[in-house]
Amino acid sequence: MKNVGQFCESGYQRLERKGVSRRDFLKLCTFTCAALGLDLGLAPKIAEAAEKNLFKKPVIWMQGQGCTGCSESLLSSVDPGPEQIILELLSVRYHPTLMAASGDQAVQSLEECIAQGKYILVLEGSIPTADPRYCMVEGKPFLEEFKKAAAKAEIVIAVGSCACFGGIPKAGFTGAVGAQEVLPGVKVVNLPSCPVKPDRLVGLLLYYISQNTLPKLDNLNRPEAYYRFTLHDSCYRRLHYEKGEFLEDWNNPNTLDWCLYHKGCKGQETYTTCAKSWWNDGANFCIYSGSPCAGCSQPEYYEGFAPLSVNPKEGK
Ligand code: SF4
């Protein structure tokens, strides 16, 4: 049985109970301010507003054609875990992978939340348009269910390349598209990359909930702060690019940190902060691990950039 005190605790107290200290939370808010180009002095205000409001925000998380990698990405992150922020402070009413309920109970939870309206709708995975049977949810076409949920949402967020622009499924035969294409007239906030970067989702949510508005978006509806510059602009291999030093032979240990352009790197066409904000609490990112950028935050990804091992301009 639940302790009655648990119903009275603030969003922050609930976080603290889960091991996220106030210092960690403030650090996250400061990081969010810095990433979104806000005055760092706003961090305590964002924290205060978020603490008051987060606990009340209902979230519906729908999954179309995808690999569940965006959910996995969120759950694997650390310090303080965005999954702690999202799962403990927001009220996630429906998430096909994470929710304990299943079958009729899960459908009922979804329908009740839709009936109440004013929730945050998150889409992971693409939407098939060639034939509704390519993706069904609870026996109904996913496209219809998604539109129904979007109609009463306060804000729609597409996470990951598939949900934003069609992503990998778009290269197939299902007519896969992103959320914006099936919701004309609705502003969908896009957070592309494969998978979504958890700090971007948490940053966007903290900003929206505390400021009651959206951050500045670019012409692809991506928060400008995260997608203003190309990866090439801040890549640590850039000096080698300028010197014309390109990695050609993976077996030559002397050139392993040279520019990956001749191995198909799409960093010049790809707008992202990947080189500044690494994965898993700064442990690594594609280029540092020796993988050329695949361009996953761009609408061209994957089909338009394939084959990924070929240089986009020189065909090398
Ligand atoms: Fe640019 Fe890619 Fe070379 Fe980095 S590895 S400098 S992003 S081309």
List keywords for this structure.
single chain; 316 residues; alpha/beta; Rossmann fold; Cytochrome-c3 Hydrogenase, Chain A, domain 2; five-stranded parallel beta sheet; 14 helices; disordered N terminus; binds iron/sulfur cluster
What do you see in this structure?
The chain is built from 14 helices and seven strands. Helix 2 packs across helix 3. The chain has two domains: 56-226, Rossmann fold (3-Layer(aba) Sandwich), CATH 3.40.50.700; 229-316, Cytochrome-c3 Hydrogenase, Chain A, domain 2 (Irregular), CATH 4.10.480. The chain has 316 residues and is α/β, with parallel strands linked by helices. The protein has a five-stranded parallel β-sheet, sandwiched between helices. Strands 4-5 form a two-stranded antiparallel sheet. Residues 1-8 have low confidence and may be disordered. Residues 231-232, 235, 237-238, 241, 259-261, 265, 267-268, 287, 293 line the site of iron/sulfur cluster. Iron/sulfur cluster binds next to helix 12 and helix 13.
Residue fraction in strands = 5-15%
What ligand molecules are bound, each kind once? iron/sulfur cluster
Q: Quick one: how many beta strands? A: 7
CATH topology of the largest domain: Rossmann fold
Shape: globular
The major beta sheet can be summarized as: 5 strands, parallel
